[in-house]
TrEMBL record:
PANTHER family linked: OS09G0560450 PROTEIN, REGULATOR OF CHROMOSOME CONDENSATION
Residue ranges of RCC repeats: 1-51, 52-103, 104-154, 192-245, 246-295
Family annotation (InterPro entries): RCC1-like_dom, RCC1/BLIP-II, Reg_chr_condens, Ub_ligase/GEF_domain
SUPFAM superfamilies the record matches: RCC1/BLIP-II
Assigned keywords, A-Z: Repeat
Domain RCC1-like intervals: 2-292
Name by which UniProt lists this protein: RCC1-like domain-containing protein
Keyword DNA-binding in record: no
Origin species: Timema bartmani
Signal sequence, start to end: none
Entries under Gene3D superfamilies matching the protein: Regulator of chromosome condensation 1/beta-lactamase-inhibitor protein II
Keyword Metal-binding: no
Length: 297
């Protein structure tokens, strides 16, 4: 089921519309039960199935769908430009897309206006054709508005794009996951430690924005240990984590109640959500959050 903004055809309904407020079923060339990942950018959507096939729809003005000769695609179309590669994971920024193959190769396409593809922007401004980036084997990738961050198999963070607000800071060891918000980045180490850097206008780093409006060197959020299964998520300007003891904590921009604290005030330090216990899975969108709890709670 799919819903929300559809101004670029990103809902794969075969037509464009300003919004679709009711969950609607869409057709794809793959069995819905085989879909393992759905990710969205500013106006495009990518789905990945268990066979490693990638499909996309929506805006394609910068080639972010990996499809040549079309400015938009109104229903899911397979990304055949990846050839026979089997895709393991996919991520989207505003108008760029990133894919990691099961053999560890890393491909990028779409806009590179800010160097967010990891390629010098004077060489490639955008590409509708996937380009392989020669990096050490990548295990995880995330992208914000104009920056991207990757984690290598050795646990090192590789970053690219704009650093105007401190979003890009390399050099962290033993990292297993990194997540990017609009202009901020959060990294989780193998042992659950959480490091933050970048823009902190709304407290999205879990720090007081009056004393830390921007953070240019990674800071560890002390006494905060995330669950071992990569349970750190960030929206556009808010963050949520599932701790090792099963608590959900959130902080940052809260205009729509997306931090789940019961108010609309921004949360500048990590807050435990007492209404969520026995949580097994969490996630975050640009301005919303969600959680799955045990059925007997």
């Amino acid at each position: 089921m799919i819903l929300g903004a559809n101004s670029y055809g990103q809902l794969a309904q075969g037509f464009k519309s300003e919004q679709c407020p009711i969950p609607t079923e869409v057709c794809t060339d793959t069995d819905p039960a085989s879909i393992v990942s759905i990710v969205g950018g500013g106006g495009h959507t990518m789905i990945l199935d268990k066979h490693g096939r990638l499909f996309g729809c929506g805006g394609n003005s910068k080639g972010q769908l990996g499809v040549e000769g079309k400015t938009e695609v109104l229903s899911f179309e397979r990304v055949t430009s990846l050839g026979d590669y089997t895709i393991e994971s996919v991520a989207c920024s505003w108008d760029s897309t990133f894919a990691i193959t099961r053999c560890g190769r890393f491909f990028v396409w779409g806009s590179n206006t800010y160097g967010q593809l990891g390629i010098p922007k004077h060489e490639v401004t955008f590409s509708p054709t996937p380009i392989e980036v020669p990096l050490p084997t990548i295990q995880h990738v995330s992208s914000g508005l104009r920056h991207s961050a990757m984690v290598t198999n050795e646990g090192c963070v590789v970053v690219c794009g704009t650093s105007r607000k401190g979003a890009l800071v390399p050099g962290l060891p033993n990292i297993q996951k990194v997540v990017c918000g609009q202009h901020h980045t959060i990294a989780q180490s193998v042992d659950g430690r959480v490091f933050v850097w970048g823009d902190n206008k709304h407290g999205q780093l879990g720090l007081d924005p009056l004393t830390h409006p921007y953070v240019y060197t990674p800071l560890e959020l002390q006494e905060l240990i995330a669950a071992p299964d990569n349970e750190v998520f960030t929206g556009w300007t808010h963050t949520a984590i599932l701790t090792e003891n099963g608590d959900v904590m959130s902080w940052g921009w809260n205009e729509h109640g997306n931090c789940g604290t019961g108010s609309l005030e921004n949360i500048t330090t990590p807050a435990v959500l007492d209404s969520l216990r026995k949580t097994i899975l969490i996630g975050a969108g640009a301005g919303h959050s969600f959680a799955v709890i045990e059925s007997d709670y």
